Amino acid sequence: MWRLRAALCAGLLLMIRSCLAQEGAWWPNRGDPQRLWTGEDLSAMKPGDSPYGALWPRPRSVQISDDFLYLSPARFSIVHGSSSTAGPSCNLLQDAFNRYYKYIFGDSKWQESENRPLGELQLLQVVIISPDSDCNAYPSISSDESSLETFSQLVYQDDIGLFLINKTLISDAPRFGHRGVLLDSSRHFLPKKILFRNLDAMAFNKMNVFHWHIVDDQSFPYESAAFPALSKKGAYRQYTHVYTQDDVREVIEFARLRGIRVVPEFDSPGHTQSWGEGQPSLLTPCYTGEQLSGSYGPINPIKNETYTFITKFFQEVANVFPDHYIHLGGDEVDFSCWRSNPDITKFMADHGFGTDYSKLESYYMQLLLEIITSVKKGYMVWQEVFDNHDKLTPDTVVEVWKEKNYQNEMAAVTAAGFQTILSAPWYLNRISYGQDWIQIYKVEPSNFNGTEAQKKLVIGGEACLWGEFVDATNIMPRLWPRASAVAERLWSNQQVTSIEDAYNRLVKHRCNMVKRGIPAEPLYVGFCDHEGHL
Amino acid sequence: MWRLRAALCAGLLLMIRSCLAQEGAWWPNRGDPQRLWTGEDLSAMKPGDSPYGALWPRPRSVQISDDFLYLSPARFSIVHGSSSTAGPSCNLLQDAFNRYYKYIFGDSKWQESENRPLGELQLLQVVIISPDSDCNAYPSISSDESSLETFSQLVYQDDIGLFLINKTLISDAPRFGHRGVLLDSSRHFLPKKILFRNLDAMAFNKMNVFHWHIVDDQSFPYESAAFPALSKKGAYRQYTHVYTQDDVREVIEFARLRGIRVVPEFDSPGHTQSWGEGQPSLLTPCYTGEQLSGSYGPINPIKNETYTFITKFFQEVANVFPDHYIHLGGDEVDFSCWRSNPDITKFMADHGFGTDYSKLESYYMQLLLEIITSVKKGYMVWQEVFDNHDKLTPDTVVEVWKEKNYQNEMAAVTAAGFQTILSAPWYLNRISYGQDWIQIYKVEPSNFNGTEAQKKLVIGGEACLWGEFVDATNIMPRLWPRASAVAERLWSNQQVTSIEDAYNRLVKHRCNMVKRGIPAEPLYVGFCDHEGHL
Questions:
Q1: With an 8 Å Cβ cutoff, is B436 touching chain A?
Q2: Tens digit of pLDDT for each residue in B249-291?
Q3: Positive or negative: CA dihedral B261, B57, A236, A261
Q4: What are the annotated disulfide bridges (chains A, B) (predicted)?
Q5: What is the ipTM of this complex?
Q6: Considering the entire predicted model, what is its pTM?
Q7: H helices present in A178-335, as ranges
Q8: Cα(A108)–Cα(B130) distance, rounded to whole angstroms?
């Protein structure tokens, strides 16, 4: 029995330019009769095989040879390399080692290869080479990344149950630093279990930002410590349909262990109907003629109490969510209620806003942005905040979401020197019949008129799943593997555009997700060895 | 404590014009303060409330009064009425009693009402009045129906956990006798568990025919006793992706206990690529010029061996599936391979078919139909078999599936005196963004030019979920509650067309399904008290 050593070089968290190197192995040759029983000859399989196996997203550089080693579940270990700056005290890595051992070997029956003249891979050494490999830190936009995920995707099982891995050289790093998924827990409440499962799926696809659109008009499930009435009255149900402070902490930690940032969105001044349930004086009272109509509009921007509330509320949010960024929304403000309100009319006149209500919107946003800066946070905003010429700090991230002419908006935002992320073509709540992942996959975020410097300001994108038509019953198969198409677009080289090769890998990657408990829907006809059971 | 007796009058299986009558109750009056804490005042709920509660499909005639009784999980029983022709030896009813007790009371915490001046419903008597109530029989197209389902849909829980039922008078019977769901286990294999879950959902929606499109081009998961090679070579995987004879029996029995018929479809002569894997001489070899191309076309209709195989195979099918009907397919036969084959060309000439290959198709179908008649079965066919003027037995059911001008086809089929079922507008595999259940709901099967006698030949319809894009991961939320719209259309009066009332009931019915373990997707924004967990 040969003993092998593999070194997986990695950066902060789970790595940078991972590389798998073997020494002293016995390699069966191509065409060796042994290959027949290993099940490696997969030519009969539909769909076809990719030269990149089941790797998803495709790494920057991959060389998979025909030579392979086998892995014994009884003997294989994942360990810290001797030159690593991390060690057993790093719970993040220990957790990852355990998790990936299970992903690789699963519950399936396996076979040892005692009598086979095969090389065996017994050790995966993880070497963290970053000087600041703090295992307790939260990931950030500048974190170097890669993961054990790549290694696990290289392992496969042959027909008789042997675990095999081909000798492979990989050099990898993501193209974009912001690879997000937006979930909306307001139109439908999403149980914590579903959030966890989605974070797992994100990790399997190397996505690294959970954009948590946590509240909106329809419900306010965030249980605030400072303002408990917000969820008590604004959630669909005050006990079962809320995220307590502990729940939020658990979600953030679950994400951190997988190298995923949690960026919460508390959208205002529009999309705030549910805020008004527990904080009635916050919203603008609407009028019908000279009478109060009984309904409410956006946050009331002309009252001092509004800013007292907003300051205290976002101080809490800034403490609860460790990420540097808070998403402040700022989209789709409906001016009709403001127009109806005589106090607002007077305020507009006093401030010389004329009848341009976008100036009133800017007035509110500007104060909000200053509050956020005062609590030492950066912010993300929807494109309207940029369009309204609000004064933004240089590290602001502008999210482009309007589908029409989104390339023009990308050009304008980057020409003004702001970082941007793209979600316009990736509203995955929209569905159509057939293989719509192909259109999702074909999007090229840098495809707009601009200089190289402008293109560098595109820091990534997000797959958005708005919640009108999804809840725990259908959210996972609706999102996955369609969001995988976004994941590869944001990770892999710009030149990775073959639909056929993507299909061949994504079919396998989808089955790997299903095997790991993610009910990712099928791309087209076919099967997985392990069908998903709900 | 008042003791009440309720009688649920029922026909064969579980019913016919069920009626719930109470005697000697104390009824709180409308406006009684007691009503406040019962949670009956649901006016704050969005969506609105229907006068028909959560009943789905809407029964023929319903009178729900404001008076209500409470049910104690500890004391409530479902029993055979003394005048019933069925008794404890009827396992079908015993199983249903147990099942529905659990559906009604679930696992939720409940509350007794010892100190409340409320009437209590302690007994549900089920009275079967059919003279031939054979509990071991299989359901048929002429079975009278209704169910405990209606009773269970009337029970609700108030805010403090009391189970309540309003005094209600119901008279019910379905409008159409054939209310089907087609699942396709060939494009993707559907684990038995999923079939069971779908049968449960069908029962919750009073659908009564499982049209099992069990094999097709892509795979042959039916494990034939006479021809085991068909699945051994034609299934996606020979052990894990097949239905054994035991599996099939289990599915049929699971369906029978819920009043659901299982109509298997073995589609031929087209859609049979997978048959050829295990029965290679069955299919027509295709030619490129004068050379065999290596690919195969539809079943070869010119060989005697074909009919020897078909006879033996359908003899088995006729034995395994107890329903009177077998669906023989007959759709979408591609003539290009037949055209390329010189033996077929000669046969066509010998029989004077000219170049009309639909005559060759009819030649095959005619022999097949005779074989089915010889094994004492009736058949269902796709519309092409009718369109080709094949000679059909009078009890044939023609299924209209082509969307274009389907009303004309309904008129033609019924004008020729054949029974028909409609599936053309109900291909639920097709999806679009938004509330597409409304279009599904608006279909009126009798909406074609024809006499009253013709309309009577419309015996129902089917929601078809073809399997290209669905497997175990997404099939249930894709199908439900969209198929519920078909269910009500086929059960309720033609006059039941209010979208608003349907929405108000379907939202509740969807949540009831979720509570019972069916991951039925949401119609729109909102919530269920018990969110679905996958």
A1: no
A2: 999 999 999 999 999 999 999 999 999 999 989 999 999 999 9
A3: positive
A4: 90-135, 286-337, 511-528
A5: 0.90
A6: 0.91
A7: 192-204, 229-234, 245-256, 275-278, 304-320
A8: 52
